[in-house]
Amino acid sequence: MTIRRYLRLLPVVPSVLLLLVFLLAPVAWSFYASFTNAALSGRAARDPQWVGLENYVRMFSDDSFPLAAWLTVVFVAASAVLGQNVLGLLIALLMRRSRKAVSSWVGTAVVAAWILPEIVAAFAAYAYFNRDGTLNQMLALFGGKGPDWLYTFPLVAIILANTWRGTAFSMLVYRAALADVPQDVSEAALMDGAQGWQRLAFITLPLIRSSIATNLMLITLQTLAVFTLIWVMTAGGPANASTTLPVLAYQEAFKFGDIGYGTAVASVLIVLGVVFGAVYVRLLREQKP
Amino acid sequence: MSRPRIAADIALAVIGFCFVAPLLWLLLAAVDPHAGYQTAVPSAPSMDNFGAVFTPELLFQPLTNSFLLSAGTAAVNLVAAVLAAYPLSRYQSRFNKPFMYSVLFGTSLPVTAIMVPVYGLFVQLQLLDSMMATIFFMATTTLPMAIWMMKNFMDSVPLELEEAAWMDGASSMAALRTIVLPLMRQGLGVVFIFVFIQAWGNFFVPFILLLSTAKQPAAVSIFSFFGQHGAIAYGQLAAFSILYSVPVLLLYVLVSRSVGSSFALSGSVKG
Amino acid sequence: MRRPMRFATVLPVVAALLAATACSSTPPAAENKTLKIVYQKSDSFTALDTVMQDAKKEFEAANSSVTVNLEPIQANDDDYGTKLALAQRSPDTAPDVFYEDTFKVRSDVDAGYLLKLDSYLEKWDDWSRFNEAAKAAGRADDGGIYAVPLGTDTRAIWYNKAVLQKAGIAVPWQPKTWEDILSTARAIKASDPSVIPFNMYAGKGTGEGTVMQSFYELLYGTDSTLYDEKEKKWVVGSQGFTDSLAFLKTLYDEKLAVSPAEALDANVWKKVFGEWFPQGKLAATVEGSYTPSFWQKGGAYEWAGYEQEMGVAMFPSRNGQEPGGVSMSGGWTLAVGAKSKNAELAFKFLTTALNKKNALAFDVNNSQIAVRTDVAAESSYLSANPFVKDVSELVKVTHYRPATADYPRISTAVQVATESVITGKQSPEDAAAEYDATVRKLVGDGKVLER
Question: Which of B33-42, B98-107, C44-53 has the highest mean pLDDT?
């Protein structure tokens, strides 16, 4: 009987194998390599040495790591928690009020930025924020002279770009969640001024509390991993001003050939992902008794 | 029509415009032989840019590679996820919960973070520059989400039909094949397309794991051809980008028509 | 007994999974041997591709059982280095013959990527035709030779005569000191603010170009140096280093160079050659002897009148001290992969690609300074462009990068320092101090020299 019960689980094996080989093994290897001086070139490439905590010590004595960690926090907070999340909720609320034609048109526009291949989105954002790009063209229409966004305000540019690219996800989540909220409740929320805002805060939002929590977790994790967008737009520059942790890990490992240090940075990112993941799983468990 | 409604329309339209603005450049530059970074209506619109990128080495081979990678990734996902979802959906076991939660946990690994170690692993296993291995890796990164979605789709297929089949002597795998899968065709399609779209747009993974030009998908070839900063052929870049994006946009439309636009979330969030 | 049925359906999947991951690369056919050749190709660098295509034809005609697979990597110098290194790590992706920058030779020899060529070179008659500097370019710490250069280069000031004349500066122009450069640049700026008076690369974007075509011309013209060859130690804390950074800061702060934003663009050099010089928007810059290759017929940015419109000058030492000027030399080589299964054939291909005919074609098309004495004597080489003589004479004042395995990482540290200075993130003093700290960390306190 018990054997049978185990046999029933057999079809799970391919998935488990895949997850072990391609997800768990790299994670394990990452932690291992972060204690070595593995490199792309030089003597350490042929014969990597165990260096103990050296990479981690360097991480905190270097300027670039604390800066990258801080930039990552700002990038995630501003583009995911604030940008995508609030904008997505706002769009979803507005859609409940507006004409069908308008809401479906806007929905398509928002989703298009999300469905585009990331490299295409990145090129489009690069052109948009370029010194001669569309954004400055529009500012010029109002008589303003825009800065060279990618150079002067690289962090602002990548935050806006990531908000643009990712809001669709939050919008879809909140549309689905609001669909379960009685129309008059959410509608009233937007209607009568101060009272409406209060209703939004005290009635609607508590009703979709679990969706908000899940959404926040998911977009935080997605934003934590953003690489291509930043790499194409600013390559982490100028002078590391937009180097988030994934960009730092790539640069150290592949551009400067320091695989050991690169994996140490990657390991920190993995730990961050695990922490957020644990919170996420907890949230879901509490939701479903 | 009430004022708040008009206000909502206007507010939405403004937001919508902000989202479209960065894409306008793409569309206009593609038909402008003298495109720069400015968004401008071309003085002499033409299809020259499309003509220029319409070559086997620039367009067809990378797109074929993209297709092989994406379809392979989606197929691996489908097979593995269906198999895994079946016992999870059909049998009560004390392993189910821990397994589902660890799967969920898997979705939270930042894939860009593990690329450095994955590269190291691929070197050790001599899998570098292998399409097959890259497919399996990409499939694994989307697998947790696929299993989660698949289980939810499967849960919605009533158990009674299968129980009847078991009575008739069919094995559970046969029941899965002949009864459950046909009933969740739509769900299978959704998972396939969901994974396909993700793989199609993936840049970083093939950028690190596939080294020879002949194997690189469009995401990588577009990057190396136009250089890190778009080089000088902006119009061609835009034209190529459009040709490369159209397939996934169409697929998305196809799916959202059939199951509603929140398809991608049906498994992950509401589950 | 229905349960076994399920096994039957599942097992093949598992097996397929394992099989697919285990043997993903197809083994080479037993009979027909293939050689994998990896090199760089880009929209502005096709000279090597042409040579490789020719060499492939020549080689396959002479060796009918061998297939030569050309695998050009489309990337700039920096990304090419990364991609090549990524491929080197694994025996089944490592190339048989590849294009390698001289400054990476020692580091990659240490990594075990390059095959020692001494025993092969003995049997190659043409080797005696390579000049001494060329032979040294591929030498590693153990005295063995691991790479054969395709050509070499020097660096000089290139200037647009018309732009200088418009600002009232007499041509030919030859600045004697750093101050001369600044005063001329300021004069140009004053006469036409829309012109970029004197550009020098900086930052990580231009990679090795930042040090070779900018920072080292400054540093080696002070009384300091990067590396003490006698003591075999890296120099830290030198005034020359700080002063060189300060010079760059002056150029960028006074807007005598491009804007820092443009300087950090990895493709800024394309604009230098493709737009600014031909359109008269740039007065002068420091660039390599290969400059004419972009403008000559068949080059990436053909410019019919460049021979008349451009001039070349030696980069001066700081106060004009002996020997009066500075240049830097580098160049690229071909090497054989240490993991090559057909080393003999790979070397044979290398000699085909570097024979007199192909070397001449490469040196002419890519405006390289010849390293083969027989090529250097060819009239078609000497008359390839009007600047061959000028840039070849700079060999007298030229410097080479420290030939050590640590060099590539030190170079990155220098690039970081220049980027911090021109973007205003750090003062020259602070950036130099951070460079010193990085060097100490990279090579250890025992291998630095305080000066």
Answer: C44-53
Which pLDDT tens digit goes with each residue over B217-234? Answer: 999 988 887 764 445 678
Determine the average pLDDT of the residues in C248-272. 92
Contacts of A250 in chain B (CB under 8 A): 112, 115-116
Domain count, chain A: 1
| pLDDT confidence band for C273 (50 / 70 / 90) | very high
Indicate if the pLDDT at residue C257 is higher than 80.
yes
| Complex ipTM value | 0.87
CB pairs under 8 A between A and B: 297
Question: For A100-137, how does the pLDDT look when each residue is reduced to its tens digit (9 = 90+)?
Answer: 889 889 999 999 999 999 999 999 999 999 888 889 98
Q: Is B178 on the interface with C (CB under 8 A)?
A: no
Interchain CB contact of A94 with B (< 8 Å):
yes
Chosen CATH of C33-149+332-367 out of 3.10.450.50, 3.20.20.70, 3.40.190.10, 3.40.50.920: 3.40.190.10
Q: Which of C21, C91, C265 sits opposite B133 (nearest CB)?
A: C21
d(CA C296, CA C364): 10
In a domain, A135, yes or no: yes
Is there a contact between B133 and C20 if contact means CB atoms under 8 Å apart? yes
What is the extent of the structural domain holding A162? 83-210+232-243
Is residue A197 domain-resident?
A: yes
C20-47 as b/e: b if 16+ CB within 10 A: ebeebbeeeeeeebebbbbbbbbebbbb
Between residues B211 and B134, which one has the greater pLDDT?
B134
- State both tokens at B100: 């589902």
Q: Which two tokens stand for residue A157?
A: 């540019």
Please indicate, yes or no, if residue A239 is contained in any of the structural domains: yes
Question: What residues of chain B, 112 to 141, have a C-beta less than 8 Å from chain C?
Answer: 119, 122-123, 125-133, 136
Sign of CA dihedral A156, A162, A165, A171: negative
| Alpha-carbon dihedral angle through residues C91, C97, C101, C107, given to the nearest 10 degrees | 40
Write down the H helix ranges in C317-424.
343-353, 356-365, 373-376, 379-382, 388-393, 407-422
B120 touches chain A (CB under 8 A): yes
CB contact under 8 A, A123 and B15: no
Give chain A's mean pLDDT: 87
Whole-prediction pTM value? 0.86
CB–CB contact B126 C267 (8 Å): no
Name beta bridge partners: C130: C372
Contact A136, A247 (CB under 8 A): no
Residues of chain A contacting residue B255, judged by C-beta atoms under 8 Å apart: none
Q: What is the DSSP letter of C335?
A: E
Fill in the DSSP letter of residue A131: T
Residues 6+ apart with CB under 8 A from B262: A172, A173, A175, A176
- Whose tokens are 């009933």? That residue is B183
Choose between B224 and B115: higher pLDDT: B115
Contacts with B115 (C-beta within 8 Å, 6 or more apart), sequence order: A249, A250, A266, B204, B205, B208
> Which helix H or strand E contains C74, and what residues bound it?
strand C66-74
The fold for domain B48-268 equals: MetI-like fold (1.10.3720)
Domain ranges in chain C? 33-149+332-367, 155-329+402-450
Question: Are the beta carbons of A251 and A243 closer than 8 angstroms?
Answer: yes
Domain boundaries, chain B: 1-46, 48-268
Tokens of B99: 């397994």
Is the CB of residue B257 less than 8 Å from the CB of residue B184? no
Q: What is the mean pLDDT of chain C?
A: 89
Neighbours of C361 (CB within 10 A): 17
Q: Which CATH superfamily is domain C155-329+402-450 in?
A: Periplasmic binding protein-like II (3.40.190.10)
